[in-house]
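Table S2 (continued). Query chain:
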Amino acid sequence: MLEIKNLTKQFGTFTAVSNLSLNVNAGELFGFLGPNGAGKTTTIKMIVGLYTPTSGEIFVNNLNTNTHRLEINQVTSYIPDQPFVYDKLTGKEYLYFCGGLYNLNKKVIKNKIDELVDVLKIEDWLNKRTEFYSQGMRQRIVIASAFLNDPEFLVIDEPMVGLDPQSAFIVKQVLIQKAREGKTIFMSTHSLHIVEEICSRVGIIRKGNLIYDSSIENLKSLKTEKNNNFEELFIELTSDEADFSYSKI
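Corresponding output:
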């Protein structure tokens, strides 16, 4: 589904992402981890077309993002780290607006909204203007909008920002179900426990370089007496003294 080949992004003399290569298969829930400034969001913005790579290529469904962006956008949804909504629209109006961007007819949009209202538990807020939404409700509405076109490929940057435990539980269950349906999910997050709980594969980036890419089970197997939990292991792998023999196990 997703193939990244030798991807590099430079801002002047600063290299944010360096020669990154990885593949994510259909049906995988891929967790993309790294400390602040590691290059996670830069990578995501290149995948969804907000940044142009300095060099390298990205393919979605074997289509090059440089030459087939419109076709790729039709099967892709992106959830940014900060949910953006139009404050003077109600939740329902916002969802109809987003559905229109995918050229969905009103009947299809209505049916999808009815389905997502039940799944994401947003019915009580649907007819209120989004300017009155909490951060968590804004996030749930943005997540709902991302599922309107039933995307094959979902790119998410920090999906749990502002979510209370109940909302986070709902979102996790939705992501797990979508992966079971064969959808591909590329998720960047700082929430290590969520990655450990729901992801099937993990990639770790440090200073623009991919230092680890393997299954969640292989990552768990690296735990030692010194690093007996996921957080301690992550800190060891991303430290300046990290042993790069862990890379791509």
